[in-house]
Amino acid sequence: QDGLRQCLSEFRQPLAWVERLDVTLGQVLDPVSQSASSKDAVDPENDFQREMSFYRQAQAAVLEALPRLRKLQIPTRRPDDYFAEMAKSDQQMQKIRQKLKTKQEAMERSEKAKQLRAMRKYGKKVQTEILQRRQKEKREMLNAVKRYQKGLSDKLDFLDEEQTSSQGNKKGNASQRTKKGPNAKRRYKNQKFGFGGKKKGSKWNTKESFNDVSSFRSKVAHNKGPRKAGKGGKKALNKRPGKRARQKMKSRAR
Question: Does pTM top 0.85 for this prediction?
């Protein structure tokens, strides 16, 4: 202790308290249990108790120093228009901002990729469930058919279910077609050129049309009627007969 006091007297300077601002306090009691026995209750090996003891001591020192500063008319609060120069330059802060922006963009990309993976996994799960349900329905139908073939069952409910499902699909497709319909360009072409394809036998000959000869004209059929100047003009009227016709004409002449 004598050596410590000697060292303290060597570097101690006779300055006012405003220049030193030192506050020395002993151990502060716990406000919850203010008892004399609690002084020795702090375990130095217990980190929580030791840090709480330091915290209470510092708080008590601040509560003691603030009235003394106010008495000396020294401000203890920072003014509203206080401006302090930053320790780092603008270039360094710009680098930090760029780094933070890059990190945020990377996190957003990672989050989007995670969402896409989750959506793909969900879609694959739904597809697998649909395939499993179809396989199960097919298996049940085959088992019902086998039971019916063996005579173990006389019910044909599975056929009704299949028909209702197919009818439901057809109705759904028909409703989709009626809702959609052809566009204006397709309707104009259908009106102008027809629908194409098979016309349901509308041009086929029938028994009545075969026996109906009211529109037959013999003069027109045998080229005996008055001719019109068509594509060939005068040459079409003086057309040379064929070879067989010329041979018949020669045989008649003999």
Answer: no
